[in-house]
Amino acid sequence: GENVEQHPSTLSVQEGDSAVIKCTYSDSASNYFPWYKQELGKGPQLIIDIRSNVGEKKDQRIAVTLNKTAKHFSLHITETQPEDSAVYFCAASLPGGYQKVTFGTGTKLQVIP
Amino acid sequence: EAGVTQFPSHSVIEKGQTVTLRCDPISGHDNLYWYRRVMGKEIKFLLHFVKESKQDESGMPNNRFLAERTGGTYSTLKVQPAELEDSGVYFCASSPRVYEQYFGPGTRLTVT
Fold first, then answer.
1. Which residues contact residue B63 at a Cβ distance below 8 angstroms, ignoring those fewer than 6 apart?
2. What's phi and psi for A80, nearest 5 deg?
3. Model pLDDT for residues A52-107, shown as the tens digit of each residue
4. Beta-carbon neighbour count of residue B66 at 10 Å?
5. Do A100 and B45 touch (CB under 8 A)?
6. pLDDT tens per residue, range A38-50
7. Which entry of A52, A59, A112, B50 is 20 to 30 Å from B81 by CA?
8. Which of B42, B43, B101 sits opposite A99 (nearest CB)?
C-alpha cells in the first residue's frame, strides 16, 4: 500500500517568514495530494490540493509543488501569520472510484509573533 | 450548511467496556469515512461507506470494531471490548464525490 513520510515534525518560524513542509510518497500511481490544516479542537480542514498532472498550485499565501519523478511534494506558506499555527498533514491518494487517503504524520507549525 | 458532527467529543472508558461513536455527515454526502489518529502518529484510514454499503473496510484493526451506517445517513463505530491500544482520536469525514473530504472535529477516546 501507499506510505507517506512527512518532515519536519515540528517547525517554528518568525511571523512574516516562510514555512516549508516536505512529504514523500511510495506509490508512483498516486495521483491526488491534498494538504490539511488541523487547529486545536477541530478536525483536519482541506487547505489546498494538487493532482498529478500539475506541478505547482498556488492559493494566496500557500502553494504546493509536486515532483512526480522524485515522488516528493511540498507545502509552502509565505508571510506566515500567528493564525497559521496548527498541525499540517500531507496526504496521497491512489486513483480509483473512491478516495482512500494515506496521511503523513503531521507537522506542528508554530508562528512566533 | 452544517458540517460533519461527531458525538461524543471525548470518551473515557475502562478496558473491556464498550463504546459507540457517532458521526453525522453533511446532508447529501453519500461517502462517509472513518479515520483514527493514535498517539501523534499519522491519521489512518479505517473504512469507507457509500450510502449504507461498506465500500472498503481494509483499515479496520480487528473484529472488535464494528461500523454501521443506518439508511445511508449517520454512522456509528462500536468498539467492543475496548483495549488500551484503541485510545486515540477518531475522525469521521464525508464527501459528495471523489476528493473534497470534509472532516468532523473528532472523538477523543481514552481507554484506561
1. none
2. -60, 150
3. 888 999 999 999 999 999 999 999 999 999 999 999 999 999 887 566 789 999 99
4. 12
5. yes
6. 999 899 999 999 9
7. B50
8. B101
